[in-house]
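@channel anyone free to eyeball this complex?
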Amino acid sequence: MAKIQEMTQLSPTMEEGTIVKWLKQEGDSVNPGDILAEVETDKAVMEMEAYDSGVLLKIIQTEGTKLKVGEALAIIGKPGEDISSLLSNLPKPQSPKNTSQNTTSRNEKEVPSSPSQLPAKENVPVEKQILPIPSTAANQALTKTPQESQTKDTNNGFTSVTRGSLRVLASPLAKSIAIEHGIDLHQVIGTGPEGRITKKDVLDSLQKGPRATNPGIVTQTPDEVVNLNGMRKTIAKRLTESKQNLPHFYLNVDVNAKALESFRKEINEFQASQNPDSAIKVSLNDIIVKATASALKLHPKVNASFQGETIVQYGRVDVGIAVSIDGGLLTPVIRDANVKSILQISSEVKELAKKARDRKLKPEEFSNGTFTISNLGMYGISRFTAIINEPESAILAVGSVEDKPVVENGSVVAGRILSLTLSCDHRVIDGAVGAEFLKTLRSFLEKPNLLLAVG
Amino acid sequence: MAILTYREALNRAMVEEMEKDPLIYLMGEEVGHYQGAYKVSQGMLDKFGEERVIDTPISENGFAGIGVGSAMVGLRPIIEFMTWNFSLVAIDQIINSAAKMNYMSGGQFPMPIVFRGAGGAGGRLGAQHSQAFESWYAHCPGLKVVCPATPKDAYGLLKSSIRDNNPTIFIESEVLYGSKGEVPDDEYTIPLGLGEIKRKGTDITLVTWSRALSFALEAAEILEKEGISVEIVDLRSLRPLDENLIYESVKKTNRAVVVEEGWPVAGFGAQISHLIQKNAFSYLDHPVERVTQMDVPMSYAANLERMSLPNANRVADTIREMLR
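replying in thread with the prediction:
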């Protein structure tokens, strides 16, 4: 009896997934646990396992297709089994499929309602769509069809989008103008009610490019339109919600980093003497993670979460570290960072950051932190403010260590200064509470040997 | 060019037509000795005598029926309802006899009758006397429905209605009787089914008729100061309907709002917005909107009556929202 393999929920927040790559082909035999395909969720690229054993009889959805959790992906059954009834009972796709393997013939009477509805080339993932720009006046009709617009087949984390798979909200007039000028409405931002694209929006998009003052000059760089991938959407959604809903306030403190730097140097020299070949180089950030975790253990009010009617003060100290990856960022979490050694933290951070960049991070490795650290010191940023990573209540923004004049015993001397900014959710953390925490953290950073005294 | 009130323009139209054609007569409550409940037939009894200007008892069903019968045998009656609210008593005569006689007799009985009187809200007359019924009559095939908004239109349209060989529902606005406007001295008619652009504009088409034109014009004045240019289409008659005038305007402005005095549900504005979306779909940049009376019986209290009716501010707010 053939069975339908559905899009599985691969992470707690996953609502839909995009098929990146089929690892099994039609006709391959599969067993439960075999990896069928790689699927991009809102956070990472994950492996999707088969639930049944048999032969992969039919791949229903091609690479690049985005599906909601629970939608049919493939059919697994006995070799040669008749699956026509299973196929015919599947919900009809909403849009023309761009696949040569598609068995349902498109309704021949279907008239494309806009250029974007025209069938695209077979199986061309459209990574970035280039908006054609009129070479002279805005009212000159464009002859380029969307199919001729350039496509880049890169794999840099941008989701492929199947053309015509999105319903565009546009006024009838906007649609007719778009058809007339060969504009893809997917690339037009609507300003009307409910984001509807109006005549003005289409005309604006026509004029987007700088108009050539001299018709002889046609060296214009066209705008690049980048489709949001799952991660980009998640970042946009969650950080907007956090910045809108959490009453952020910011506490800034300058730390004298001389002791911290020499402490790091000592650790690395020690490491090099122990393992000349495979020494782990500890970064300042690794020590900051340890110090922060230790300070959090002493200040449970900061290591907390607002839960509507209650505030949860976590018993564990799990520190997330913002890692920039191509196309976004992830926050791998160091569990129980307060009880781990600096060296252990250092090697975990390196391992998780690599996984994050390879997009192999599992949901359990980047969720359920209790606090986050964001460090832009390596970019030469002196100080900045970070947006709290909900449901946490605070985030530490770490700048670079800089040469600055400081006053010691009444005279100005050269100092090494590290600037920290704590963003706090005022529903959970009051100014004084945040300040006390920073005071402790500063002590740990200015006198790193104190870290031996706490767990 | 004389300045006439709306009632004087109607009076002039009836007098001129009755002088020309002895078959025309006027019948209704208080049309004769009292000179008309709203003084529209002022001086007509003296001019034409009791055979042609006939006072009736309170009996709408009766005198409307007599009118229909007399039209069947060749007369050309003008039946005045004191107000259109009272026409409901005679609606069987209007809908079942007048509207269908020509059709059901295979063209043997033309129906050259005009039913006319005051329509819409007058001002603190309460729920039974403040109703706009043009949508009711426009619903029925066989009737022509005319709704003039100015003295000039009232004169030209009433003359065409009297000359028309079909039953005509001629709805005058009670609050407009005293309104003044220029009426050319030379005789003229305005064909039924010919709307008029009452104000040129570029940003939105406002479709209206009868009293609601005044709200429209006032709203357009307010909006002009804000840089919004409103084009106003006065339909003048709902049946026949000057559809092309609407479409031509919408094709230019890409937006339409219908402003009417009556209630929203199944009001004539719904038919207009249907026609616009059907026949000018590709030109629309926004759904067609409507401004109507509130969906409640008319209040008696003056302040509530004002809130119930459409007004310039409500029209302006709707248009602002559409152009946001």
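from a first look: Residues 94-166, 209-218 of chain A have pLDDT under 50 and may be disordered.
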